[in-house]
Amino acid sequence: MNEARIDKWMWAARIFKTRTIAAEACKKGRVSINGALAKAARAVKPGDVIQVRKPPITYSFKVLQAIEKRVGAKLLPEVMENVTTPDQYELLEMSRVSGFVDRARGTGRPTKKDRRSLEEFTDPEFMDDFDFDFDFEGNSEE
Q1: Domain of residue 59, residue span
Q2: Is 69 found in the same domain as 3?
Q3: Is residue 51 part of a domain?
Q4: How many domains does the chain contain in total?
Q5: What's the chain's Rg over C-alpha atoms?
Q6: 65 burial class (0-12, 13-18, 19+ CB within 10 angstroms)?
Q7: Per-residue pLDDT tens for 29-46?
Q8: Which end of the chain is more exposed for a tag (fewer CB within 10 A), N or C?
Q9: Residue pLDDT, tens place only, 74-109
Q10: Is residue 77 situated within a structural domain?
């Protein structure tokens, strides 16, 4: 077998959990083959480079074998090669560090820990010992 459908290949190579999700990603324009957007039925062959956009980063994989049957995780190095650039992984780490600042839609309410760390971040430390009792000598009403 020299070619495989892109949605089947991404599912078989464990990039997506289900083939339906893989096909949806193609439909939404998140998958490209050698720089061109790909539909779910597009065929991939060994040597193709596939970019998959999973916000916040874009993963890149080089096809080594065109398969349509799902394989075990230990066999993945024979099927594909991860060629994602290190700067993309830096983006992922940056988004992990920022964490609660830009919460993804649908992740629910912030936890108590999130709230406390947010308050710690927004409340300046020097405000705790600041004395607001000013003595206005010139404006006293006698």
Answers
A1: 1-83
A2: yes
A3: yes
A4: 2
A5: 26
A6: middle
A7: 999 999 999 999 999 999
A8: C
A9: 999 999 999 988 888 888 887 777 655 556 666 777
A10: yes
- H-assigned helices in 1-142: 6-12, 19-27, 76-79, 86-98, 112-122
Same domain, 78 and 111: no
User: Can you name the residues that pair with 53 across neighbouring β-strands?
Assistant: 58
Any long-range contacts for 105-113 (C-beta under 8 Å, 24+ apart)? none
The predicted model scores a pTM of: 0.65
State the DSSP code for 72: -
* 75 and 25 in a common domain: yes
Side chain identity, residue 94: M
**What are the pLDDT digits (tens) for 113-137?**
888 887 877 766 555 555 555 555 6
| Cβ(83)–Cβ(62) below 8 Å | yes
